[in-house]
Design brief:
This protein is an alpha+beta fold. Helices cover 66% and strands 9% of the residues.
Amino acid sequence: MHGASREALAAGADRLDALTSASGADVTGIADDLAAVAAVFGRDPALRRMLTDPARPAAQRADIATALLAGKIGADAAALVAGLARSRWSAPRDLADAIADLAVRADLAVAERDGKLDDVEDELFRLGRLLDSNGELALALGDTRVSADKRVALIDGLLADKVDPTTYRLVGRVVANPRGRSVSAGLTEIGKAAAERRQRLIAYVTAAVPPTEQQRDRLAAVLQRLYGQRVHLNVDLDPAVLGGLSVRVGDEVIDGTVATRLALAQRQLVG
């Protein structure tokens, strides 16, 4: 998002944070409501244009949203959507995307409240890697010619009772409402949002064998000193690296694998 849309989303996120931090708030309910609204708005361009039309007064747009949602979702979620409709948007599509983004943030707030945010990050990462390595499953989950209910049913068999409930909800929503992305790309975006919630970077680590807990802690500490903020490690195993580690943070790659050093030595010999 750019310009006005980015500012509108930031304001909506602030309002959501105020709601989710209140004791007794039904944050899961808010997330469910926002996800449902995002799906409807995503399918209806005329509705998005009506709620983002700069020719309409902001109060009128908010009133339209309130009238549309009255009795259909909870009051807190409806107020959030009305507030977003009151804002200015760079493009009508950004409204639906912002509501979907707030649904994700609400779910992540639940995981953080329950002390499960790390678990959710790890589960999303592992599932993303599974989809990257299983093209048939990725295609089945991302085939929008098949009804959303049938695609989500595949998730039931794959994840039911095997992951944290927040992970289950997030994955189901990406599958049901991919918003033009692959499921794997959607999971990656959510993983980044989880890391940002903790104000951490994600370091993608590739190793031949699983690092020990002590090695993970030491690497995280080194990267924290290097980048000046906390770092969450997502570890992927690849026997082809032979030994050592490859670490990618953003666009930077720190490659200390044996395979890379051997390849470098070979090039130097040839040269």
